[in-house]
Write a structure and sequence with these properties.
This protein is 21% helix and 0% strand. It is an all-alpha fold.
Length: 73
């Protein structure tokens, strides 16, 4: 949808053969993403100016109007 609207986006796919490993990798990715934008790491509540992450899983078929390169699986 973002690309359709001309909004720059980046899609990442996270998969692993080992059961449960994909979830661990996803959580690590999300944590690292938000840690990279922390304004003041000394504060208990950490703020960033990073845009939100959007997720899609295999249980939801992609919209036919979106290019496959913009899907996260």
């Amino acid at each position: 949808m973002f690309r359709l609207l001309g909004i720059p986006c980046d899609a990442q796919g996270i998969r692993h053969k080992e059961p449960g490993k994909s979830e661990v990798l996803l959580l690590e990715y999300v944590e690292n993403y938000f840690q990279s934008g922390v304004e003041d790491p000394t504060q208990r509540i950490r703020k960033t100016n990073l845009p939100p992450l959007y997720f899609q899983h295999l249980g939801m078929p992609p919209c036919s109007c979106l290019p496959p390169s913009c899907m996260i699986s």
